[in-house]
Amino acid sequence: PKPPPRPVWPPPLPRRWESDWPSKVPLTPRWSHRWDKTATFPQKQIRILLAKGRKYRNLKEFKAATRIYREIIRLVPWHIEALRSLAQLYGWQKKFKMALQTYHDLLHQNPGDVEAIRGLGDLAFWQEKYHKAIFWFQLYLQQQPKDLQVWLNLARAARKEKRRKIAVEAYQKILKAQPKNIEARLYFSPKP
Fold it and tell me: Is 30 left (phi over 0), alpha (psi -120 to 50) or beta?
């Protein structure tokens, strides 16, 4: 009789996660080498497709841009810019589940990608999942502390979740950089 198969350790990472809970995203640089990164691919064709995708995205023709970015990913599955752009397009089209899966794939390929982390925060904010948005925005702001738009989104999410300490800190950061910011000034003005 044949001996039983030996277990593989570490077990292979799943391609997609079932849940969008932030703890499932690997934030350490461990990732599987699913594709041979030394394989040749048509660089000129990729550049042309990227230019077309940007053009369609700027013209707000999202379906055409999505089709082009998916073609790039078919040719080069690890193409970071195409994955990032595709996730943004899905978010703008309110295809949140597909955007979430694409951002998770992006983080799987490039752990710690700040744009993917911000994208996940924006997705959670748009879906009114403010506790997740707070998590992702705080993670993003650890690496990019000067992004005022994210500080503003963090403050808004914290207000919705009634987490005053986080909201106050965010509004203070905004007022330090932009003393005339109306929303932050209104937050600290005395209530009648």
Answer: beta
